Amino acid sequence: xxxxxxxxxxxxxxxxxxxxxxxxxxxxxxxxxxxxxxxxxxxxxxxxxxxxxxxxxxxxxxxxxxxxxxxxxxxxxxxxxxxxxxxxxxxxxxxxxxxxxxxxxxxxxxxxxxxxxxxxxxxxxxxxxxxxxxxxxxxxxxxxxxxxxxxxxxxxxxxxxxxxxxxxxxxxxxxxxxxxxxxxxxxxxxxxxxxxxxxxxxxxxxxxxxxxxxxxxxxxxxxx
Length: 224
Description:
Layout: E1 5-10, H1 19-33, E2 37-42, H2 44-47, H3 50-60, E3 65-71, H4 79-94, E4 102-108, H5 118-130, E5 134-141, H6 160-174, H7 181-187, H8 194-211
Parallel strand pairs: 1-2, 1-3, 3-4, 4-5
């Protein structure tokens, strides 16, 4: 079954630039290049507005592929996404949904280890199974802080393997097939040595603290 209509649902507080949006958009362009249509929606701006949320649920009920892109939150999906998927699950139990519809996901985290995202991937797969979707796989990666919302064509050689993995994932999803295990493995490979990523993240964190006037409080222990 070919994937003709995709909803890319980005569940991150960053309404403009985000790593989740950058990763999802790259895969989405791959689907469009293979003849599919992709509609991208940000979940957070509509979550508190009932009418817009209902409209988004209606859309999710009538696509060939629901593609979720989100960051890890304490080993889990972001809370608004959990609640949205619970509502979608109920709808699919109560009403006729698009037959053969599928779910796939892209999860990233700021930790160095890709394995930190595995629980979230398992949750997405379980949601698909219990909601009548076909589960086509979950791309997971650590070191997401390196992307920091940049378009992937601006991330250089370090993201070359991940860009290729997203292209290959798009080829599989466009045909309604599960993402191959080799593609999932390539996407999850470390971008750089762990010590280098830690150095990069610490530098970024301290620079952000300076910009926010919080440098003097980095060692505070208010609950000690």
